[in-house]
Every structure is written in C-alpha cells, then in structure tokens.
Amino acid sequence: MYSEWASLSSLIHNGNEENFSVLGKFPMVEGKAVAVSVVKHLAGNLGISQAAEPSPLTTDREVLWCMEVVCFGLSLPLSEHDTIRDCVFVYCEWLSALHPVPKISVPKPVCEDPNLYARKMINHFHNLFVPRKGEAWPFLYLDIGHDVINRQAVLCHRVLRTLQTLAQVSNRMNRETWESLLLFLLAINDTLLGPPTVKDDVGDQLCERVLSVLFEVWLLACSRCFPSPPLWKTFREMCMNWRHRMALIEQWNRVNLVLTSKLLEFMYGPSFPELKVSEEDAQLIPSGMTNDCIAQAWYRFLHCIGDPVDLCHPAIISQTQKFLQYAITSEDVVDPYQHPCLTQLPKIFSKAIRGIAVLVDSFLGIAQPYMDEGSSEKKESSSHPSSATHSPTPPPQRRLAKSFSVAPSSAIKGMPKASLIGLTSGRTVTTSHSTATTNSGPSSTSSLTSVLSNLGQDTRPPLAPARPKCNSILHMFGEWLFEAAHIGCHGSTHISDNSRLGEASTKRPSSLLLDGSVRKSIGSGNSLGIQGMVVNASPSFSPASSQPASLNDATELPPTLTIEKFESGRAEALGALCRIFCAKKTGEEILPVYLARFYLALQQGLRIPEDRSGDARVCGEVLSSIILNSADLFRLDLDGVQVLVPYVLDALEIILPDKELSPKSQYVSKTELRRASIHLLLSMLVLPLHFQTLPIRELSSGSEKNYNPLTFIQLKPRLMNLLINALQVESDPQNTQMLLGGLLLSVQDAAAYEEMEQGIQLDQGPDTPSNLLSSASDTMSSHSLSDYRSLTEDLPELQEGDAAFGNLYYDYPCRLSKNSAHALFVQATYLVCHRLMSSWKSDLNVSLAALELLAGLARTHIRKTDDLECKRAVKWLCDYVAQQCSRPPPAHSKDLHSSIVAAFQTAATWLSAHPFLLHDKECLTTVLEVVELGISGTKSQGKPGEPIKMKEEKELKPASMRVRDAAEALLTVILEQVGYFPSPCGAESLSSLLDEAALLRHCRSPSSLTPPFHRNCSNSFYSEQYKGSSPLHHFRYFVIENSTMLALLEEPLGVSDEQDSQPTVTLLIRGPFGRHAWSMQLRHLPRHKSGSKYHAPNPGRPIPMGETSVRPDFKPRYFPESVDRIPLCKVDHSIPSLESTFVEDEKSSMEHAHLARLMERQVAAEAAAMQKSKALLEQIRDSGGQVECTPPPVCHEFQTARLFLSHFGFLSSESLKEPLNSPIAPLMALDINQPGFSHDLETLDGISCRTCDTVHLFYVRARQKTADEILSNVNSSSTVNPHFLEFLSSLGWPVSVHKHPGWSGHVSTSWRVTESSSGFDLPVSDHGGSLYNGENKVLYWADVNSEIAFVVPTLKSQKFMDTISTDGSLTSGELSSGPASFDRSFSDRGYLPPTPVPPEKPMRTFSLDLERQQQLAQQDGSAGASSSNMANEIMPPAPPPPTRQKRLGRQGPGSLHSSGGDTKVLVVWLESFEDWINVPIGDLLNSMATGLEGGTRPSERESFVIFLHALQTGLLRVKLQGPSGRMTLATPLVDGMVVSRRVLGTLVRQTSLNMCRRRRLENDAYHPPHVRRRLKIQEMTQKYMIKMSEPELYTYLFSSPPS
Length: 1603
Fold this sequence. Notes:
By secondary structure, this protein is mainly alpha-helical. It has an 8-stranded mixed β-sheet. A 6-stranded antiparallel β-sheet has the order 8-7-6-5-9-18.
C-alpha cells in the first residue's frame, strides 16, 4: 500500500538535531547551573505560585535562547525533578499560543508565530521520555527511587495530556505542526515500546497511555489534516515494531471498533444493527470527520500492525533492531526470539484475532452490545486473571495525575479500555439456562458461547438482512483468518521467514486459481467433494504457508511458545470463519477457493489428536470453537459441504457420548458445547437415507488409488448409535428435548423409507434384493451387540416398578438389525421409557417431550410391530402415572398434574393404535387399575397382602380434577373407540350421524310421518303450514345422573312388516363423549329363533258341556252376622259418623258431595254396561247362535320408554330418591316446550367431543413482505414449489366443507352438512394450494383425541371469513327459538327421498343403513386405506361419508369450544430463508379467523410459527418461532432441524398438535371437551327440568308424548 513512498523511520531512529541544546557542549555542572537559574525565573511568571505576569521575553533571540536552556533542562537527571518540572510547566504554558485564547504568560514572539515555536517545543519534549546517559532503567525501580519515578510519570502524563488537548482545541495548527506532533508521538512510543518488555520499566508503566494518545491524536489528524503517505508508512512500520506489547493490540482493537461503528452507519444505513461502543470511545471520532475520511482511516488503521498472524511467529516479531541489540548485549538471551517478553505472544495473538472476529461480527450484524465498565472489569478480572501483568497503566479516563502510580499494585493494573468494547469481556461463562445459536445465524462475536432460551428461540438479534456477501468479508479478512486457522497443521509446506517478511499480507485470493474442472466437481450434485482443489491452488493458497520453519522446530523454542500455546487464537479464527460461511444467504455464491480453504481448515481443526490419554476428558479450544460456531453448517446450500460429514461425526462422537467431557477453555459452557453438537447432529440424521450410496469424496489429494470411498448409508449406524448414547447421558433439559425430537425423526424416517422400499420391491417382484436397512434383520453383528451392551451398562437402576413385568424390560431383541426401523423403535421405546421413570419425571418439559415421542412412536407404522414392546410401553406409561400420583402432597403441582394428563393421553394413543393390547389380560388389568387410580385416587388392589377395597368403600379423592377428567377420557376410549376407530362412517366424527329428524325419517308408523317428514315433502322444512311440527315432540327427554341426556323415541323403526311388531325404543344418548343412537327391542326369543312358532295349530272350538252349574245366591258381608247382635257401648259412640265430620268443614263437605256424585255416576255406568251385556246375550240366545271366543288384536303400540327405564333400573324407588348431596334426582324429565330448548340442544351437539385445532399454511416467495402478495401466491401452481403441493397432500386428506361432519377450520362451517352454493364442488385443476382455503375444501386429519384442519388462506377466503365475522355465524332466519325451530341442519338436509345419486355426490350413510350396506362400506374402507399414503396415520374410508354438522349460536362460541383462547399455528414455506424475519405475521393473522377467538384479537407474540425452507439437496430446513413460557416449543420438530420430504407432513402435523396440547395444558381456564359437554348438559338440566314427585313421574311415563 505504501511501497512507493519513503519511510520516516530513519529520522525517528537517528533523532532530530533540534532535540539537542547548546548547553550540552559544556560540562554538566555548568549547564545544570544555567538551566536551574533560568528555568526557575521563567516558571515564576506562569502563575503557578503567584499571579501570572506577561513574559519579559519580547524578541525571537530571547525566546530561542531560553528554549535552548529549557531543552537542556528536560534532559537533566531525574534527581533534578524540580527543574524538569518547571521546564514542563513552561512549555505547557507556552503551547497555549496555539489555543484560541493564549495565556498571558506566553511570550509575544511565540504568540506571533505559534506553529514555529510549537514544533520546537514538541521536539524538545522528546528529552523527557528518553533514558539518561549513565543511568540504568532498573535503578529507577529500587525502593529509594520509587518516589522519583512516580513524580516523573506525573510529568510525562502532563505533557501527553497537554499535547492531546492542544490537538483537540487548536484551530491554528498547520500541516508542518501536525506532522511534527505525529512524529514526536511516534518517536516517544518507539523509544518506550520498541525495546523488549522489562517488567515495571517506564515503557511498561506508560505503555497504554502513550499509545492511546498516539491513536487518538492520529484520529484527530485524519479529520483536520490527513497524514501523508510517508507518515502512514512510518506509523505502520513503528506499530509492527511494538507488536510484542499487549497494549498495542488493545488500542488497535479499540480504534478499529469505533471506526467500524461509524463505517457501518453510512455504508448500510440506520436499519443495520448498531455496533454499540462506550460513550467515551465514541468521542474518539471528531464530529466533522467525513465519511470518506472515516473509510480511508478505517482501512489504514486496520493494516497498521501488518499481518496479525505474524504474532504467532516469534522469529518475525523479534526481527527488530532493538531486539537484536538486546540479544547482543544480554548474556541470557542467545537468539532474539528467546526473550522472556515474547512468552506473551499467544495471548497477544489471541486478542488480535479476537478483535478481527469482532469486526467480522460487526459486518454480519451480530456483534455483542456495549457493556458497562464495572461489569466488564469484573468479568475480565475473573476470566483473565493473568491479564493484569500486561496493562499496568490505569485506564485512559483517569486523567488526574494523583491517580497514577508506578508501583505494581492491583489497583493500578486494571483492565484496559478494550474490555469495554467486548474484545476481552466477550467470553463469559454461560449457564445451562442461557440460549444457543439456531438457524438465525452463527453464534455472536468472538465469544465461544451461544445463546438458547428454549427450543429454537433466540434472544439475540439475528443476522442483519442487509449484511454484505460472504465473499466481500472474506476479501477483507479472509487471508488473515485462513492463515490463523491453519497454524500448526500437519503435512503442510512452508516458506522461509525472509519471504514471509516481504510478502504482502493483503493479497486477495482469486477464484481463477482453480481451473474449470475443479469448479465443475464442486458444483456437481453427484460428487459431493472438492478433491483436487489443493493441487490447483497457487502457493499463497497453501493451508499452512503462514507458518515458518521456526515454529516446527520445538527444540529451538521455549515451552511457552510452542504451537499449542496459540490454540486460542486459532480457535478464534476458525470460529470467525464458521460464522462467515454460516451467514451465507439463500442463492448466494461463495468463491470455490474460499470454500476449499474453509473445508481444509475445518478438516484440520476437527482432526482428533491420536494421543488423547492425558486429556481424554477435555475438548480442545479449536474443536469447541468450530462446533459452537458451525451449527448451521449443514443447513445451508454450501457447495460440497457434505465432505465434512465424516469429520464432524468424528468430533461429535468425542463430545456427545462422554458425560464427563468438559471444554478446555474456561469460557465455554459444557452445556452450550453439547447443544451446538446436537444442532449439528440434527442436521445430519436424514443424510444417510437421503443420499444412500452416494460416495463421500476425500478432501486430501494424496489418497490411495485403491481407496474405497465412504458412502452416506454407511454412516447410518454411527449416527443412530451416537443419538442413542447422547440421549442416554444428556442431563440438560433443552438438549434432551432436542435429542428426543431427533430420535422420533430417525424412527419415522426409517419407517417411511422401509415402507417405500417395500412397495418398490412388491412392484419389482420377489427376486429383488431387500433394502439396505432390513437386509440384516435376521442376524445381529457383534458390533451391534456391543453397542447394545454399551447402551444398557450405564443405565441407572429403577427404583420402583421393576417387578411388574419381571425381566420384561431387559428382554432386548438382539437378533434385529440395529439399522432397521423396528430396532430403532425398540431402542427408542426402551430408553425413553426407562429415563422417563428414572430421570425425567421431575421436569415437565422433558416429560412432555418424552410422552410426545412415545405418542409419535405409537402412530408410526412398523412392518413387524413387536407386541411385547408395545405392551412394555403401555406398562411403562401406567407405572409413570402411578409413580407420579404416589408422590407426597408437597410435590403435587400444576406441572405434575399436567404430566399425568399427558401420560393418559399418550396411553389412549397407544391403545387406539394397537387394539390388540386390550386382548392381553395383564395389560388390560394394568390399564384399568391406572384409570381407577386417576378417577378415585386409589387402587382397589393395594400392595400384596392387603384386602381388596370395593367401590363403595373407597373415598373419592383424585389427584386433581384434571387428572380425573383425563382418566375418564381414557376409560371412554377403551370402552368405545379401541378396535372401533375409525368407524365405518369415517374418522370425521366420533358421534352418531343420526339425530331426531333422521330417526323420524326411518320410523315405520305413518303417524310419525307428518307432512314435513314425508318422503315426498319439499326441502322447506320450516314452511308456514308445518311450523307447529317439530321432531322434538316425538321424543321424551330425560337426564340421568346429571350428566347424560336421553332422547327416547317410542315409534318403531323400519319400512316393512316382515317381522312381528316388537316393543321398540330408540335412544339418542347425549353424553360427555358424544352422541350415540341405540335401537332396542323387547324379545322373548333371540332374533335367529323369532321366525319359528312352537305352538300347535288351532285345534278348533271345544264342545260345550250340557250340565248347568248351580249358582248360589248370597249377599256378601264384610262382618259376621253376629256383629249386629252385640250391643253398642260408649266407646263405639266416640267414633263420630262420617256425616258429622262434614258439618263444621265446608271444604270436606263439598269433596264428599263430589265423591258421592262420582260414585253414583260410576254405579249408573256399570249398571248400564251390565244391562247392555245382558241384552246382547239374550239377543244371541234368542237367535240360537253361539258366542265364539276370539283372541284380542296384536298390540302395535307400547310404552317402551317406561319399559326401558324400568328394565335398566332407573324407575326403582332408590333411583328416584333425591340424593342428599345434590338437588338433582338421578332421573329428571325435561320440558321441551320451553323456549330455547332446541337452540340449547343444537349448541350441545355443536360441542365436539375432541379437541379441534387449525393450522394455516402460507407460501412466501423471495423478498415478499406484504400479506396480499403472500396470499396471492397459492392461486396457481406455477407460483409455488411443486414440493409445497406434495407437502400439503401429506398433511391430511381433503374434505368438502359442505359435506364434512367434523372440524373444518371455522365454527360457521364446522359440524354441519349443507349444500354448497353451486350445488356441486367444481374440480380445480391448476392451484397452488388455494383449493384448501376453507371456502369449499380443507385438509383434515383426526384421531380419537383430536381433530385438526389445515387451511391455505387466500384473498378470496379472507373476504369470505370477514363476511362471516361481520354477519355473525348465524343468519337472521336461523335465530328463531322455541320448539318449532330445532336444529337448522334439519332444514339443510331437506329429507329428500332416497333417489339414485350420481357418483360424484354419494348418498349419506347412516348407522341404520350399515347392515344393508356392509359390503359397500367395506369396499369403501379398503379403497380409502389403499389410496391414502399418510405414513402410519389412521385414514378414513374413501370417499369420507358426509354427516350432520352442528354449529354454534351467537352466545360465545369461544367459551364453548376453546375455553381459554385459540392457539394460532402458522406453517410458512420460504423460498428465501432470510425472509423469515420479514414475514408479516400480524397481518396474516387477519386471514386466520376460526371463530374460537372468544372476542379477543389474536396476538403475534402468542402465535406459533413453523418456517420451512427447501434446500437444493431436496431436504428441508426447519425454524420454529413461538411465545416464551414455562412450556417451550413442542417436539418432534426442533429449531434448525433438517428433515426429509418423506416425513415432513407427519412431523409438522404432530408438532402442531403438540404445540396446541401444550398450550392447553398451560392454560388454567381450559376444560377438556367432555367436561364442556357435561357442563352444558348440567346447564340444560337446571334450565329445563320438570320437578315431579314419584307418582307424577309414573303418570308422565304412562301418558303418550304430545304430538
């Protein structure tokens, strides 16, 4: 840069003639006498001890003569301190001539020509700083000279402060004066700092002060009089001579950081992340300094110390004149590089590289913020105990002379100012609660820490979007960083020291160094390697060309200067390089030469030393730095980065399986190191099955010709073993959750791969060889067996629950291949269950992650599922619940109960996915015992030997109401859903599709087919002429146990009279777990025997007997005849007659009269009937006919409701009594005639018995920032990635909103079946996902516990939802109340006759039609199962049957469904990963209305976002974003994970469900669906119950329902 300019170094070394006085020609005694007398007189006029007076010097000759005296006085021995002090005072006062207002004591000639005299005075000041002839510097530090040196230090600081103030305030200095001032500062710095460092000499005491003044004044000169190129060249040469001083690097870092802060402001604008520096450092830049001047000064200061990598070469640093002079005169030092002061070079080198790393981070936008002095010094003093020996001078802000001391005390040896700017305080020891770097960018600044608060959330700012390209940063800093990264590498060629000294350090590498063939090999997708790059590189490309031969010869160097001592600086360089390359943007290209050098540097840095016996439990600084800063290495599209996979895997196998491994650097947290390693592991798990047999090229160019390249599939066992072993020893909760997510990813990816391979083999025929993962499934190699032994040896012993299954836990299938999905399934189940019981049960988040993994394993389809392993898993879950419930009362908390609730839900998932488990008696007993424990709080069967407690003997004390509700839900799943889900009607609804109207349509009785229900009626159910009819009036409604509502229909069902009429009752049972339809008949014979008659044929009329019987005539008596003969006594008259009681009571008299009239009327009626009967008999006898006895007609009408209630025990006296603890009787009748009953019944049917969630999906093209642009992308397939449509199809199955009986994403269209506005759903051939915008279709998935809808919003659907939100979920015509307006879905259905339906619009299938359509339903179910490829998830029949859908009224749908708020989950597909920070989440929430918000506007901070970015390799990168809370983001997806397309849909669906479940567990106001239904039934009971006594209830049952 300055090669064509002359240097001024000779002028500084040889000295200036103006520094010598004429008095020096005379003897010291005479010169001293003159100086003392003259200077004393001059100092008397300065106003120090008395008032200032004008100077008597009026001519130039007088002033020049006095200056000769003062110049000599400044060179006097230090014993003449008073004279030297007066000389300093005189010149300091006279220099005020350059101030805007000179002092009165300044001579007139000096004021007239201040620049001339100022240059002379500045040159004379040099005498104060140089050693005196005949005096040795060590003498000055004896005890007798301590005070003298202290006073001299004060004078030196006074001069420096005066000159610095002069440069700041003067506006009269010309260029010559500026150059003189700068040359003077360079000279005194070279005088003090050039020689080798001697402890506590003047150079050591004044080092930081003189350097700070030099750099600060030089910055002022750049603003006011930019230094000439010779000065810059001299400045650079001088600085290179002082590089053995720590203070130089600290000041260099300080100035570089301040200039960089200003540089970033005008280069990248105010939106770029601010580089914060201290307020004092910010004042170093003059206010008037132009942007061009800042840029020029920044570049020159950056290169003022030459190549920082030279600091690791003692031979280069010691190649100075003063080092050689010291070596010649010293007896102890033979070679200059053996001087003791050079032992500080490793720390100096580390600080210099750390400063460069901070500059790199500044351009990336991730530099650490400014920290206050107190905290910085405190941290620095604790983390760098030895740094006090490098900077004994107090910080520059201590301006008062009294604060300076020469004594080497701890108060003086404080921290340099560099500690304030994050250079020395950047490395702070982090704790396990700190957060780690994720996909937002590499870890920040020079520190080797990474921050992570939870799974994927980053508290520090991300990489700056406007950051420069990686090539630009590498052009500036790459050469230094690459050289520093390669120091100490083996097998490198070196160049001589002479060539290194002459080599320009700023040479920019060129991409032209590589030929076209190498470029082609790098960019080729079939050869993931860069083999041959090193051969084609120029000599400057050599990885270790910066390392001279002197460093290789360990015998020539002292032990403190071996290459291992420079490991810290090398670690900083590698860390900075990793951050640069991990900052690559989507689509950005990095020069191949940089990629090659980077990969070679990482290869060398990741190389594990062969002899690790001494530090087997320590991780080196270089390895730690690489791991901590390269978490995103495999998440970016770096060309050929896969060649590093084996080396990274080798390093991870050192770190993760070793629980006791600790980083060598005390500034690196072991937890953060393991977390960064897990991030790398999660990005490599899918590589073997993705690339399969693709070879991994070797980086080294000297490999053998017969070398067999390693393939990706060969890494599969190592990766799986590493994952299992890491999970086995991990103790940090965050790390454990990440590993659990990776384990589930591995199992599901392997299962999906094997299923795909199996399909290919079936297509190719039986001769096709099996896939790689299952080829060794019948045998197990010794390696796999040893791996299993290593896995089980370190497992802790279980404390309880071991004996439940005997040796079941340790029966490992050793004959299985460790690579197969089945083996991974077994290992994962065993290890997770084991650690859940032993280690994780006390941590809620880890427990939830483990339970989520077990639920995912239950849904994973394994070709050969091991029944024993499934049984073990369920047993472990039951033991976990029992152990959690048995904990002492102080341990019971919300978190504990949340984990129990999650365990019950996981058990339900296992049982529904594996129904055969309930066929096992032992498993069924275990599950039911745990259900009993959850509901009642205790088990009937206690410990062995204890008596069994019956139900009525136990006290109901569950752990909590939440636990009881979860246990009831599990019990219902066992009794109703296991083995039956999905039902023949589909997975869309757990409830019956039948309602009152549908049942009446199937009634046999013509009386029930009122005009609105006749088959030939019109669609208008609510026509005026039939407005008084309602299906509710044909039913009797009862509530049982205040929790179950019964609707009883006494009309027989059916349309034919093929069988004799039987007493039939049809029930609609509305309970907490849904609506169910039952139809029962009272039969005396089984159905298969009902058609046979066993009685004999009619024998005919019997022959009458001729004998006439004698009928005695007697009058019946109530008492014997003898009673009339017994005389009456007084007692008999004590009983009054009946008539006498009516005399005084008028009411009784009227009742008696009324009763008498009734009796008379009844007697008359009976007499008339007897008379009529006699007349008829006489008429028959008169005609001579016979009376034939005929059987009565068959009864077709029964009071079956009464029969049902009686037979089931609801009408017994005990059942009808009101309980003491409840005002509600066990059986209550409801009044359906009250207004609002039908509306409340509809609302009850609108409350689903499963949780309902919604996920909204968006596609973001590159650089899109507005919601309208994003919503418009999915309108056409040409604007989205084809993999996005593939991803949508893997989330769920498409359903028509108008025919769908389940959750559809919005309350207004859910749980009801309607006709679309167009009549038919028109197919859409070209769409980018807009078909599933919720207007006509959505993607749907459901299991026994939950249902989820996937919606792709568009602008059209947003307007549609806005209309619904404005108009309300119900129209004005649907708001009618009363008994005539039941369930609007009845009118929507229309009750059309069963006419043939076209294939595209299938007819509804009710459960009453299943018997006659069983074969068709089976065909539909098999077709649905075969057409769906949902990767191990339960699929409905195809096409899914439409069903009735209920929706809510206006009264708070949010409170009925969400009960605490709706969880917003967004899945955003990014074309450019950097756009994740610009996605307008708040605006997109406006298009995500579900009707469950409950009147509250969704918040962006409360939303969960899953970002997906497709890599060029075909894999996908995941980023998670969500609210912070006690429960972190859910698994299996982890922030930064790389997944394959095979399992992307499954993982996103499971993660979304788990996010919503965790939010519900965290919400105190949440009620499960069955609890909300139970509460609604209780509300209806209180509102509509009919309070009747027992006789009134019997009377009500014997009467017919009103019609």
